[in-house]
Amino acid sequence: MSLVIDTLRTSTITEELSDAEVQILGSLFEVKSYKAGEQITKPGDEGHDNLFILANGDIEVKIHNGSEISTIHVLKPGDLAGIITFVGGAASHISATLFAMGDTQVLSLERARFETLINSHPMIMYRVMRGVVRNVHGIVRRMNMQAVEMSNYIFSSKGRY
């Protein structure tokens, strides 16, 4: 259980939770282990609505570019994955495949288990979802910054390149 609690404390989803609330949330997670190169999720995984939090190791996020496969990001401990389906999005909207890089442990939370908190602990749910939004906002900010850097590089603007 300490792996779960320690990992949750590194994640944005618990920033607003007390220690007791983290314990309650932590009891809902399952720890999953993967070997190097093992696939964690892929586009179109039907019936998959789990939120993943990387506990240790690294996860490579890859997408198909026509005939090529490209790594677009490497997740580090505390990072989230599976957000789209966890919040109710369709599996058909997923375009990335997640692969373990080396021995990797992931916390996995099924949406149905999380939803058991609706009546008993609604503020935990609310605060966790605020953390999920903060996480997504961080991803969007990083991607916007990368797009600006790429644009500057391509168009040699502002005399930087």
Characterization of the model:
This protein has a single domain (about 1-160), classed as Sandwich (Jelly Rolls). The protein has about 160 residues and is of the alpha+beta class. Strands 1, 2, 3, 4, 5 and 6 form a six-stranded antiparallel sheet that branches. Helices cover about 40% and strands about 30% of the residues. The protein is built from six helices and six strands. It has helices at about 1-10, 20-25, 85, 110-115, 115-120, 120-155, and strands spanning about 30-35, 40, 50-65, 70-75, 80, 95-110. A hairpin with a 2-residue loop joins β3 (about 50-65) and β4.
Query: Class by helix and strand content?
Result: alpha+beta
For this structure, the CATH topology is Jelly Rolls
Helix percentage: 25-40%
> What does the oligomeric state look like here?
single chain
CATH fourth-tier homologous superfamily: Jelly Rolls
* Radius of gyration, taken over Cα atoms and rounded to an integer in Å: 17 Å
CATH arch. level architecture: Sandwich
Extract low-pLDDT stretches. none
Strand content: 25-35%
Number of helical stretches of at least 4 residues: 6
Number of domains: 1
CATH class identity: Mainly Beta
Largest sheet, if any? Answer: 6 strands, antiparallel
- List the secondary-structure elements in sequence, H or E: HHEEEEEHEHHH
Morphology call: globular
Task: State the main characteristics.
161 residues; alpha+beta; Jelly Rolls; 6-stranded antiparallel beta sheet; 6 strands; globular
